[in-house]
Amino acid sequence: MSRIFTWIRSHLVVLAGVLALAYLVLPNLVVLAFSFNKPQGKFNYEWSEFSTDAWTNPCGVADMCQSLSLSLQVAVLATIGATVLGTMVAFALARYRFRGRGATSAMIFLPMAMPEVVMAASLGTLFLNMRIPFGFVTILIAHIMFCLSFVVTAVKARVMSMDPRLEQAAQDLYATPVQTFLRVTLPLAAPGIAAGALLSFALSFDDFIITQFNSGPTTVTFPMFVWGASQRGIPVQVNVIGTAMFIAAVALTVGGQWLGNRRKAVA
Amino acid sequence: MTSTTAPAPARAIPPDDAAPPARRPRRKLTAYWLLLPGIAWLVVFFAVPMVYQGSTSLQTGSLEQGFKLTWHFATYWDALGEYKWHFVRSFSYAAIATVLCLAIGYPLAYTIAFKASKRWRNVILILVIAPFFTSFLIRTLAWKTILSDGGPVVGALNALHVLDLTGAVGLTSGDRVLATPLAVVCGLTYNFLPFMILPLYTSLERIDPRLHEAAGDLYARPFTTFRKVTFPISLPGVVAGTLLTFIPASGDYINAQLLGSPSEQMVGNGIQKQFLNVLDYPTAAALSFILMALILGMVTVYMRKAGTEELV
Q: B212: which of A183, A190, B222, B310 lies 20 to 30 Å off by Cα?
């Protein structure tokens, strides 16, 4: 008995950590389990019986897959926009001393330190005042705006940790500035850029608050669809999509890491 | 941090290329060209809207007749009067959720950094980040199932008399968890936990484990080692984590809407209702302006106290 107590005492931190992990993963497991449910009413909160109907017919709900494809389009375009603009800003901040550096840093930091609802309401107010109709373009503008800062932070950290002598070496070997940039600088910065892009994609794809304030009646993204459904009745297919996204994300991360390890082993 | 004036090796190229890049005006111009599109985007779609919102909050009128700037400061008083409890709830729920995130997240971050083998470390980190990729609305709705009335979680909490305790502080009432402040706090904690764990892990990971050994050699007990060595070094992570949790949590309205009842509504719910349903833009603008000012004020004081360097 006392041995058990000693074991618990010496592993207290790990036990607490495992409990925390369970707290984080539990909802995903519930989403997974209830994707096999056959609910009796309109809502999918109570277990009734096992069924694979939703998995065999994921697009069986009106408008859901349409909203999914809209979300994917927005996320891809927002990721491209934010990554290009953010990488440029990150290079300027990491490589140059210039007037207005502090103000620039503050400008990058503030969107991350602002509750989403404040940005959402103020941007929506601007579009209203300018009489710009809400729709695809306004969603895209908003998404690029809030993803930008995250890209800058990720890329800047990477560029700062790069050895400047590698670029000097390239120039010593008579590489033109363009060659140096394309063959040395960009490949070195690539992991940071990839991290920023991945983060942008996830943030944009999952965004609800800013999208709700800046989208039109016909542009319903996937999170907006789920929100609407949570009031009218949720199809099981929502859980199928949620689970599929989770599995795809884990597979991507694990695959990426495996590739990275292999490349390291080869090199 | 890399210094731009790293010792340049002797070289045969004209000195023009060897000089540290930052000092020359032509290169400086490059910096501005690189900054221009990104910063312009933020100015037009982030900073200008903030100013616009300030002006909107002082306008009067209606959607049909148009709004006019009348310096109508009374909107602020009316908004504060109507929504003062929303503000109180927002900040107290966010504060409780932040403390809970720290209490739950610290052991996990500590486990990943010091207790887990390299292989497990990556697995756990993926599990921490992966929920990000499932729509968080779906995950929040899953809490409706987990906390459902008469479900196993509520039953266990009841058996352990936890609900009596939370009921005494006013977080729950009766045998329910759903539609009480506890459910909202629980959802907030869950939603923002990764934002606490990741900065904590980053700052813990940098600690040299030999420091722990050294403390042990100097007869520090494990808890003293933690209190005097580990925790102080991880403080920047604690500060970053609390900010990343508290700020979004205080503006959130999704958890209050999905897991709470109308009496748990937060300020975000008020802004959303005024903007999207009532179409009273001045009130929505005033509310979000007050929220922004309060948060900026709190963050400034907190960062002064905590004394962290550049966060970006």
A: B310
